[in-house]
Task: structure prediction
Amino acid sequence: MKKTGAEIVWECLTREGVEVVFGYPGGSNMPIYDAMLSYPIHHVLVRHEQGGAHMADGYARASGKVGVAMATSGPGATNLVTGIATAMMDSVPVVFITGQVAAHLIGGDAFQETDVTGITLPITKHNYLVTRADEIAETIREAFYIAKSGRPGPVLIDICKNAQIESCEFSYPEEVKLPGYQPVMHAPRPSLDDAVKLLEKAKKPIILCGHGVLMSKAEEELLQFAVKTQTPVASTLLGLGAFPSSHELSLGMMGMHGEVHTNMAIQNSDLILAFGMRFDDRVTGTLKTYAPRAKKIHIEIDPSEVHKNVAVDVPLVGDLKTVLTDLIPMVDEYDHEEWKKEIKGWKTEADARSIMNWEDDGKLYVAHLVTDIWKATGGGAIVTTDVGQHQMWTAQYYQLEKPNRWLSSGGAGTMGFGLPSAIGAWFAAKDQEIWTIAGDGGFQMTAAELTTAVQEGANVKVAIMNNNFLGMVRQWQEFFFEKRYSAVNMVTPDFVKLADAHGVPARRVTRREEVDEAIAWARSIKGPTVIEFKVEREDAVYPMVPAGAALHDMIQRPAKA
Result:
């Protein structure tokens, strides 16, 4: 049966099980949008292509499926770039479909012609330029396979306008044949044997749980392994939620703003088991002094990450869920009570400085507000954030028990991610309570998507932590630049009036006694709501490992007089 290239796009998306697409039409993808009317897939009209990219990303993270975003050529395509880079850094499966000028115009500086495949080559797992209609079906089939297999990631398909208009015989490939792309699932048996030998000798082991645990859906295997071997579990920023925070083996977050006892445990360990994580600078501190006495086992689907920053003793390249399934029967039950007591001692010392032990002084601290939201939601909400201080406080104080409920930009550190990713998550989990915790700076970058939330009836709750500062930059300037505050004082709009202009109910909270009622009010309304919290202006995130410092060399919160 003959179909136009535009029709083939939607036929393929339907066959891939796509339910929702986030996009923005324009001259070079208009035939695709015309064909859309004949297909059942729901389209969300975003207010900015970056917002659409983050929505597709949030949908993918919350659902475990491939997200889809669309844009036209030129600025439409380039507006996706930040969202593509965000998905790439965090290994999120998203297929981006852009329109391109007609093939015969490429290279002639046609209106809204931009080489988006060239631009996105470093920030996609793979990308395609499609110039003929008969290339579309096979390309889309491959794109979805590449996006979700192995180490997931974004794939971009740039489709020339002539290919959208042309007709050809349509057939959807039953299987994908990519001889040069064969993700390895099982680690070699000799390497598994070597890992077991290190486990048998270890007295102070620690598991580092990364985003790969969630990507491979290995949460249950991680729990089984940790319990059987009695190994404490620390999480990266994006690994949060993969291991229940209330479990006695949970150590919480590691790294630059990780828990004191967690970082101390890593530095004093004799065996590190890295599960689906990158040894990036925010995790390790200076590499010269990172876990100096620890042997290292690294389970990772992407061989390029093994030995990249940290040399390991036993690399186990393969799918994490599969490798753990193979490994669990091979290990014995161990007793690490003395090690756990040592870690508990560090925790007890650090807890004496915790802001959670401060008496109420009438001020609004983000850490307390995050805890209030956590208590009100029973810890069961999907939580998204922007990037900055509020992100770290949320990671520290919103205790997660279940996977895929923590959506935040890790590797790229993308401001503006919070609101659109929450909208995307709502399409993946409409039965879940969804909160986005945002800073005043990051929120303003994608605030226009409030209208998208209204148009779609997205039941997302927005908590803006407004300190009239770019808080994290201000904190660095306080700590390391002698309080020479440069370009961080921020005049913000009236967020209540702004929300009202978008048709979103909103409140402002300035006093401690207003908090609980405001949270209850937001939760009682079906549809989007906004609460602006006027928080303490010059609070800081603790602990903090300064850039270039050792992981154990942390700045801790001063004891309150």
